Amino acid sequence: MMRALVYEQLGATPEVQQVPEPEVPASGVVLRVGATGVCRSDWHAWVGHDPDIVLPHVPGHEFAGTVVGVGERVENWAVGDRVTTPFLLACGSCTHCRRGVQNLCDRSSQPGFASWGSFAELVAVPFADVNLVRLPEQMEFATAASLGCRFVTSFRAVVDRARTSAGEWVAVHGCGGVGLSAVMIARALGARVVAIDIHADKLALAVAAGADAVVDASTEDVVTAVRDLTGGGAHVSIEALGHRDVFLNSVRGLRKQGRHVQVGLMMGDSEPASLHTDEVLFNELEVLGSFGMPSHRYDAMLAMIDAGLLQPEKLIGRTLGLAEAGEALMTVGTSTVPGVSVVVDP
Fold first, then answer.
1. Measured in whole angstroms, how far is the alpha carbon of residue 235 from the centre of its chain?
2. Which long-range contacts does 217-226 make (Cβ < 8 Å, 24+ apart)?
3. Distance (Å, rounded) from C-alpha 53 to C-alpha 110?
4. Which EC class heads this enzyme's classification (predicted)?
């Protein structure tokens, strides 16, 4: 048996319980969780926005830890290895996996959603040879967990999807974990960054992460402010919140031939965004989606961290114990606590 945070019903208070330990998958491993992030996506699942949840449920999908069990078909990993994984685990054999975009795997699985997750002492990871990422020895588990779905999602959005270049203006809409990560990554690439939010403390964190300018969306017209600050509009715009009006501000704050990247999830009560296609056509805009990141792209991100160009540990707002994780999960949708919350040594 092991300790885990469990909710019995959607919207019910999660409680720490004793539950059975996961079995070791033949093609996978079991990890002893060293740290796990508290993410808004976990909150979406808890309130009922995700149809994959089967009750009772253990949440958590941003984790790092130590291999303690290895399946018979695993070739590249051993007990004692320190690892993390993408939040979306790929099968390794479908069409998308074979062409290198494992984040779009047709047969993907997600701990914390389709299966029990990492708010627990142990978590199972299938298809280990495809999904595990070896951690640098000097990287703490809390930092590795904070990479989670937020930092890696932002890395793919800013680097791979937006193709951000030095000297370009990047507008980041929403300064939660995803947005702050995007600010730091864009700045590390040599871009100039405008950060947009409605909370002064989050905007202050964005400045600390490298933003050149900020816009308070509660008091300013966002599109006008972004266009004025960037001399005609952003080259790249990252929507990191998941809201109809924020999406429209993001697209309309672009200059001609600008690239919008949608990262925030519009789930639950969010109204669908409607954009007239002529706005895209006449300005030759690119409207792109970005979802997670394949494990083989971690090397580029970890190299930037090792070189000191990226410092994701600075985005950790607080560390918690497992007993505190339930409250953090229930309030993450409305919390104004800046930075990333990480559960350590669950």
1. 23
2. 217/249, 222/173, 222/196, 222/249, 222/253, 223/249, 223/252, 223/253, 226/171, 226/194, 226/196, 226/253
3. 11
4. oxidoreductase
Q: Look up residue 332 and give its two tokens.
A: 């993450």
Q: Strand pairing of 192-197 and 254-262?
A: unpaired
Distance CA(231)–CA(99), nearest Å, equals 39
pLDDT single digits (tens) 315-328: 898 999 999 999 99
d(CA 118, CA 112): 7
CATH code of 163-289, in short, is 3.40.50.720
Locate 107 and state its tokens: 């047969």
Confidence of residue 282 (pLDDT cuts 50, 70, 90): very high
pTM over 0.70: yes
- Would the CA dihedral through 58, 61, 63, 65 be positive or negative? positive
Residue 27: DSSP 8-state: T
- Average of per-residue pLDDT values in the chain: 94
Q: Where are the domains of the chain?
A: 2-150+293-344, 163-289
Question: In terms of Cα–Cα distance, which of 107, 111, 87 is closest to 97?
Answer: 107
Residue matched to tokens 């989670």: 148
Q: Is 10 exposed, middle or buried (0-12, 13-18, 19+ CB in 10 A)?
A: middle
Residue type, 325: A
